[in-house]
Amino acid sequence: MSRTTRIERYRNIGIMAHIDAGKTTLTERILFFTGRIHTVGEVHDGATEMDWMEQEKKRGITITSAATTASWKPMRGPFAGHPHRINILDTPGHVDFTIEVERSLRVLDGAVAVFDASQGVEPQSETVWHQANRHGVPRIAFLNKMDKVGADFAMCVHSIRQRLDAHPVPVQLPIGAGPEFTGLIDLPRMRAFLFDGERGEPAEGQEIPAHLRAEAEALRLRLIEACAEVDGTVLQKYVEERLADITAEELERALRTGTLQRQLVPVLCGAAFKNKGVRMLLDGIINYLPAPSDLPAARGETPGTREPVTRAASDEEPLCALVFKLMHDKAVGSIVFLRVYSGTLRTGMAVLNTRQERRERVGRLMFMHANKREEVDEVHAGDICAALNLRGVRTGDTLCAPEAPVVLESLRFPEPVVQLAIEARSRAEQQKMEDGLTRLAAEDPSLRVEVDPETGQQLLSGMGELHLEIVVDRLRTEYGVEASVGQPRVAYRETPRQKVRQEYRHVRQTGGPGQFAHVVLEVAPAPRGSGLVFVDETHGGVIPKEFIPAIE
Ligand code: GDP
């Protein structure tokens, strides 16, 4: 069986946002419009399709990076009329789950950054934005909640430019804001699309309302200028002052080039909750974000010799895939989420897990849709899928063809910042707790489980209090273990790096508005001589000496 969708028609995307910007609502509406779910549940009543785990339902936050497959045929643009496959990787907005964001950023090809149109850039959006920069992820921006009182399109565009140091390029102009938000002007086409109740925007555009004509013309000129910087055809017509000859298709192609090169960020807007602007956003995802084949080949090395290896996104190359998430499901057991970079993976095939130097036989393979699981015999380069019953696999492992071994560049995990002692209530539960913790640690490499050699206490270290709280919660709901937690008996012996992190986090936290505390610190070797340099990877730059306590 060969692939049903050509790789150029894949879009593997993440939706990233500050908590409450509307990521869950938007994801759900996208799934609604892509035809996979037919009822739209309210977000915080626990009916949302993307929220899988108990905790998410209870807390109303999205923790997992569940991958969902959908399909969309764009209405307009260079790919109009062709069905595309969109794999959506859910990325959480809560600070303690930055690690989850990190792992989905590693395997996605492009992202939609969602902002609350009345708030502009918020601290968490800044953090995720910088993480995405680090991973070189092309992005489009969606200014959500345009229907809210106080929504301000121009303010948001300005704050993206100022606070994220990005080059936002509006491709739409909203018609009205707040309760008067009634439509969108498509700037490449210079047509107005007035919303049809809550069914979204119609296929046919109309004349731009007279009072918005001048503003739309001015924004279109800015759009043309941005496109001229990345596209020869647009540049030529621009310098020859033939602006009216520049077609919508030319602008769309230039926007795609600019987005892929990460020179610009197309800005779209809407109100997910009211279904407004969602279809145009779906068109934008297809038109501007990359297919796996648009990106550089996956990088890795040969195990043992450590020679660099690249694998192009093609079915003709030997198989390589990265495990980016493990989940446990009551019905089917362990689910391994895989991103296939090259080759074809079939059920029954023997693959090599290079980290563990072990061969595994692939059991069942499936695509996870919003409302069903689709079992398949094979998956191909570019696919994101789930494999059942692969034993002994950990997050970050590479699976490859045994005759062409490779270790893909894996995920990077910052060191834990919070530690707790955990104890089962009875001896009988002790073993169950240890088994549960072992499995949870395999799923989540940012969770560290260890026994203090001096006190014998079981210690848990993680990315934040909520992170550890959820672990304790999962022990109860999934493993039936009631555990009590407390501070470790011996004072937490901090490594120099941990000390710096604590001090520096404190400074960032209290340093004024916009400062965000969750920094990832790496110790880099000093350029010359002895000593250590501490780098703030989230904000960039070396951390000044005064934040670094004396290192014994
Ligand atoms: P998340 O935390 O980013 O996943 O955000 P949610 O999707 O949970 O949305 C947060 C809140 O904003 C919920 O109460 C939503 O109903 C509301 N919301 C989402 N989209 C819109 C929108 O387009 N307009 C308005 N007014 N509210 C919205």
UniProtKB/TrEMBL annotation:
GO CC annotations, alphabetized: cytoplasm
GO biological process, one term: ribosome disassembly
Residue stretches making up the Tr-type G domain: 8-293
Subcellular location: Cytoplasm
Binding site residues for GTP: 17-24, 90-94, 144-147
Chief site of localization: cytoplasm
Presence of keyword Cytoplasm: yes
Molecular function in Gene Ontology: GTP binding; GTPase activity; translation elongation factor activity
Keywords: Cytoplasm, Elongation factor, GTP-binding, Nucleotide-binding, Protein biosynthesis
Domain of life, source organism: Bacteria
Family: Belongs to the TRAFAC class translation factor GTPase superfamily. Classic translation factor GTPase family. EF-G/EF-2 subfamily.
Function: Catalyzes the GTP-dependent ribosomal translocation step during translation elongation. During this step, the ribosome changes from the pre-translocational (PRE) to the post-translocational (POST) state as the newly formed A-site-bound peptidyl-tRNA and P-site-bound deacylated tRNA move to the P and E sites, respectively. Catalyzes the coordinated movement of the two tRNA molecules, the mRNA and conformational changes in the ribosome.
Protein name from the UniProt record: Elongation factor G
Protein's gene: fusA
Covered residues, full protein: 1 to 552 of 701
